[in-house]
Every structure is written in C-alpha cells, then in structure tokens.
Amino acid sequence: MVKELEVVNIIPRILSIGEIAKELFKEINKISNNEIILNFKGVEYMCVSFAQEYGHQKKLSKKKITETNISKENENLLNLSKNLYIY
Is 78 in contact with 44 (CB distance < 8 Å)? Predict the structure, then answer.
C-alpha cells in the first residue's frame, strides 16, 4: 500500500541543513507502508547538504520512495547530490 506524505507537514519549507533530512526519514521509517510518495509542494529552498543527506538516507531506507511536486531545480540538486555523499 502506498502512503503519500506532504513534506512541509513534517519538516520546514526551507531545507537548509542535512539534519532536516534525518528528521524526515525518522518519520518515514515509522510508517508501516513500504511505498512512500513524498510530496514536495510548498518547499521553498533546498541546500546541497540537505540533498546529500536525503540521498544517503534514501539509500539506507528499506522503503520505496518517490518524489512528486518537486521543482526542477531541487530535482536536479537531488540527482547531482546522489554521488556527492562521502562517508
């Protein structure tokens, strides 16, 4: 079963630090559904550190996560950041 979450109802509209991505995934991982749609409508800003941590947390999660209503700029940032996370 698929569960859709509105990102701005969980975390701030301005995604300015990586810790915010960790908070988002804490909430995602509490949900019993295995498929999650993250609705990014209303997100005003996303920084590189959020995008990097988001990509890392998404890789760690056992859930199938898809994004919707994400701006082209933020989508490009997420795609670019997939390979930038180094730990």
Answer: no
Angle formed at CA 74 by CA 68 and CA 37, multiple of 5 degrees: 20
- Of 45, 49, 62, whose CA–CA distance to 22 is shortest? 49
Instruction: Return the DSSP state at 16.
Output: -
In angstroms, how far is the first alpha carbon of the chain from the final one? 33
Chain center to CA of 11? 10
Q: Render pLDDT for 20-29 as a digit per residue (tens, 0 to 9).
A: 999 999 999 9
Structure tokens at 11: 């975390």
| pLDDT tens digit sequence for 39-78 | 999 999 999 999 999 999 999 999 999 999 999 999 999 9
Q: What is the pTM (predicted TM-score) of this model?
A: 0.91
